[in-house]
Amino acid sequence: MDNYIFTLSPEVTRTPVSYPTRFGITLSGDLYLPRNANEHSALPGLIVGAPYGGVKQQGPGIYANELAKRGFAVLTFDPSYNGDSEGDVRRLSSPEVFVEDFHAGIDFLGTYPGINRDQLGVIGICGSGGFGLSAAQVDPRIKAVATVSMYDISRMHAEGFGGSLDDDSRKALLETLAEQRWVEFKDGRPALADRGAPLEITEETHPIGREFGEFYSRPRGYHPNSSTQFTKTSSLSFMNFPLLDKLAWIAPRPVLLIMGDEAHSRYFSEDIFTQAAEPKELYIVEGSNHVDLYDKTDLIPFDKLQSFFKGAFA
Hints:
Helix content: 25-40%
CATH superfamily: Alpha/Beta hydrolase fold, catalytic domain
Shape: globular
Strand content: 15-25%
Number of helices: 10
CATH topology: Rossmann fold
CATH architecture: 3-Layer(aba) Sandwich
Number of strands: 8
Distance between the termini: 38 Å
Oligomer: single chain
Strand order of the largest sheet: 1-2-4-3-5-6-7-8
CATH class: Alpha Beta
Radius of gyration: 19 Å
Structural class: alpha/beta
């Protein structure tokens, strides 16, 4: 299933690839290379992770297409249990599994002909920003990390967006999810949470839902593999396991946090910038909301990304 939301540059090649995670799940990916690349090129390599609920044919491919033109080998992938990747509980999400997807991508890039394993970095869009940072905390093979419109999915589940989940609401939610586990154990059919991107958009639609819906649920960013839904009980593991409690371990490797000045999610990037050790940079894109940086190539700061990774790999 293709349905890429962008046109591949004639200066770039895209090759379908697959590779295993340590959990035995085979990931479906695309490898983008400059057209003149060969097994002797020694290219710097990047992994681009999809937004939470997204797939490789959307924003990740847009980033990969542009950065391959600029001399990088770029890997995109569908997360485990989602898209075209394996995993027989469809649309499951897990902090450890999604972080492992990044480690596995480093395994792949570091053993691929023509890629320099000493120059490997990560770009995480939205939820993948948190997963990429988490992987870098314990994986020194990742030499630099950039996030774009970052979400910390564990924090969001545990606190609610912007800290909206109070103690009573959290207890009630945990009771509901605990009961749901018994239901699913008995009938073997995991239930799905509501879509993050509503199909119908009305005047009453919450502004954040509208923003996601105008991308995922419209031709702009639509892909049939990207339902923006995960199994309901997936949220339990995110509530229980923090992703980013070892940020200081990344130093002295550099971190770049990119966000739109109008992004509803900007507090995630701002808080991580405060917590992370040097070297670090917070880069603000004027006139951009959260989702704009998924696909609007006139706003995505490709020059900044190129200079950041080139500098990190020098």
